[in-house]
Amino acid sequence: MDMDVMAGFGGKQAWLAVAGAEPGSLLEALGLRDLGPVRWRDGLDLVHLTDDRIAITPPLPGARDTRWVLAAGRRLMQFPPDVVALSAELGAEVQYFATHRVTELHRWQRAADGDLIRAFGYVGQTGEVTSWFGEPDPAERDAGLPGELDPEATVLVAERDVFRVAGAWSIDPTTLTGLPPGPLRIGAVA
């Protein structure tokens, strides 16, 4: 392969962040057929434009001095994975993020050791909080969430807030630049 560079992603996209995983184990846990390596820009374009492909990064340095494998694709927005089951299967912390600025759909979830730690979902078109489990951590509070869900309070969340939480928990994928530690791998729905 020619010289490749990392490319950021995130808008109108969903992704997983898995602590300490290997790309192959994540492909297997997601039930994907491995289509092999691909250049970053080509892979990210593919998963943004198709509904049956997911791009998996090599391990990347991120929050808490941990290496994170990211999996991204529209399919994850349409069929959100069970982070609790993935966490149990992989024996790792698993995070899920989704954002779509047209409908102002914004979600994040976090599970470790097979237990759900936190879940938040929001649809800006209706102003509705669609999921709320656990207590917001400092990153979520910095993003503007209240300490507890109050039916009388207005919650406003934007795309940038999803990236802020992702950056504090694992990796903000919009910041990926420079030389990659390896190519992306593409998985296809079996």
Verbal overview:
- With 190 residues, the protein is an alpha+beta fold.
- It has one domain (13-189).
- Helices cover 24% and strands 33% of the residues.
- The chain has helices at 23-29, 40-49, 74-78, 83-90, 138-142, 159-169; strands at residues 13-19, 32-38, 53-56, 60-61, 67-72, 94-100, 105-112, 115-123, 128-133, 184-189.
- Strands 1, 2, 3, 4, 5, 6, 7, 8, 9 and 10 form a 10-stranded antiparallel β-sheet that branches.
- The longest helix is centred in the last third of the chain and has 11 residues, at 159-169.
- The protein starts with 12 loop residues before the first strand and ends with a strand.
- The mean pLDDT is 94.
How would a textbook summarize the main sheet? 10 strands, antiparallel
End-to-end distance: 26 Å
Helical proportion? 10-25%
SSE ordering:
EHEHEEEHHEEEEHHE
Coarse shape:
globular
Q: What is the residue-averaged pLDDT?
A: 94
Structural class: alpha+beta
Write down the Rg.
16 Å
Number of strands: 10
Strand content: 25-35%
Integer count of domains: 1
Number of helices: 6
Low-pLDDT residue spans: none
Pick out its properties:
single chain, 190 residues, 10-stranded antiparallel beta sheet
